[in-house]
Amino acid sequence: MAERSVLLSVQDLKKTYVSATGPVEAIGSITFDVRPGELVCIVGPSGCGKTTLLKCLSGLLAPTAGSVTLDGAPVTEPPRTMAVVFQEYGRSLYPWLTVRDNVALPLRARGVPRAERTTAVERALEEVGLSQVLHKYPWQLSGGMQQRVAIARAVAYQPEILVMDEPFAAVDAQTRADLEDLVRRVWQDLGVTVLFVTHDIDESVYLGERVLVLSSSPTFVQEDLAIDLPAQRDQLSTRALPRFTELRTHVYEQIQRAKRAETAPTP
Amino acid sequence: MSGATIRRAAASFAFAVGLPVLIVLGWALATRDTVNLYLPSPARVAQAFVDTWLDPETITGDVLPSLARFGIGVLASIAIGIVAGTVIGSTPWLRALLEPMLEFFRAIPPVVLVPVLMLVLGIGDSMKLAVIISGSVWPVLLNTVEGVRAMDPVLADTSRSYRIRGPLAYRYFILPAASPQIMAGVRLSLAIGLILMVISEMFSSSSGLGFQIVYFQRQYMIAEMWSGTLLLGLVGVVVAAIFTVVERRVLHWYHGSREVARG
């Protein structure tokens, strides 16, 4: 197969919920493409339907209209080549399974032979720096370590695209910085495509090679911004760059505009 | 072990056995020189216990058959309850169809089914098993339905996105997630099963613990009757102890995570 220019394609995606008080338009119309190997952050004001968008992308929720295409095939159920990391790490790990079994279960469901599974699990836990807690249960670990386990599980699954839904919203600032660097490292080490949803403007600029700014609900893509920061990022020096400040100010203004809904709903 | 730990253990043991010891002492004092047929002394009841229930013939003829019916009945209830509850709980239309009716069946006191089941199944073991199952299946079944239904949506999404399906999903996701509820149901089922074991034997039976207790009562063998009650109490305590051991093993993750959450 020739070099693909588009891995994930979202075309005119629309989601309307039916509620007791009538239909609620959560997503107006979202269109964007993700190229293979990109690290794209999606940022938007709270309540703009980020989680809804992510569920539609990952085949967990059927959109009302529009299409999601992964690797040329329409997404109608959770795709084999996608791994999702959820915000609520405490509820996305199986508390009755050890760390090792949590990471291994998706591989088992895929039919990966035992020996191969063991290697993959060990390598993934090593990648996130958790080799020493193989036999512990998730609830015996700190929040940051639990989210590392969830990332290890996604890494071991060897996806083409890794989708993360505000994965660090519930951890403390120090842990969060470490986990952000972990995501950059995983992305660079494994060459996986990453789609990272966040409500944190600084995080989106620090992490992303590209930032999609969403509008308020009903949601559309308000801006598609390339992040021209150096590839090697560092919590101290990158965040101190004037360019970083410019970009975060720009995104911040976009979000404020989105909140005030000044822009007309046509991208 | 330090001295303080030993003292604490001794104190909690003294508290646990203190009241029963006092009650038995009071009972012994009150019935010191009694001739009252209905209130035998504890020594008399203890003697009757040894004579009646440690007799090999009673053990093989009454105690073991009773316990076997209880064990089979309760295990069958648990198996039926979990399997049916899982199917109903994971099939929304089936649950909507059956749930009101299940609540109705659960509300029927199982004892009233004894005459009906006797008519249909006679007075043998199958009737007694049917009585036990007809009462003790409901807590497991309804709790399983509820446990399977009330699944954590995040964990459900996780399982779906990693395409964990079929038998693997039942074994590693759905049943473990429901297991705290299922075990609470099992605990109730054990208590109900024990009651129904006794009651099923009180109606036209010729063996078993329930039969013997009624027989002694009708023969004015009051000490023997009390000793049967004592035996049932002991069976209940042993069953509860076994349950606790099993529950600790099955739900170790649940107790552990809750301790951490409280910590």
TrEMBL record, chain A:
InterPro entries: AAA+_ATPase, ABC_transporter-like_ATP-bd, ABC_transporter-like_CS, ABC_transporter_ATP-bind, P-loop_NTPase
Keywords carried by this UniProt record: ATP-binding, Nucleotide-binding, Transport
Family matches, as SMART domains: AAA
Signal peptide residue numbers: none
Record-linked CDD domains: ABC_NrtD_SsuB_transporters
GO molecular function: ATP binding; ATP hydrolysis activity
PROSITE patterns: ABC_TRANSPORTER_1 (PS00211), ABC_TRANSPORTER_2 (PS50893)
Residues of the ABC transporter domain: 8-241
Protein name: ABC transporter
Annotated source species: Actinotalea fermentans
Lineage: Bacteria, Bacillati, Actinomycetota, Actinomycetes, Micrococcales
Automatic annotation (TrEMBL), chain B:
Family: Belongs to the binding-protein-dependent transport system permease family.
Pfam family, one: BPD_transp_1
Swiss-Prot/TrEMBL keywords: Cell membrane, Membrane, Transmembrane, Transmembrane helix, Transport
GO biological process, one term: transmembrane transport
GO CC, alphabetical: plasma membrane
Gene assigned in the entry: ssuC_2
Signal peptide per UniProt: none
Keyword Transmembrane helix: yes
Domain of life of the organism encoding this protein: Bacteria
Protein name: Nitrate ABC transporter permease
Cellular compartment(s): Cell membrane
Topology class, membrane: Multi-pass membrane protein
Keyword Transport: yes
Transmembrane regions: 12-30, 70-92, 104-123, 225-246
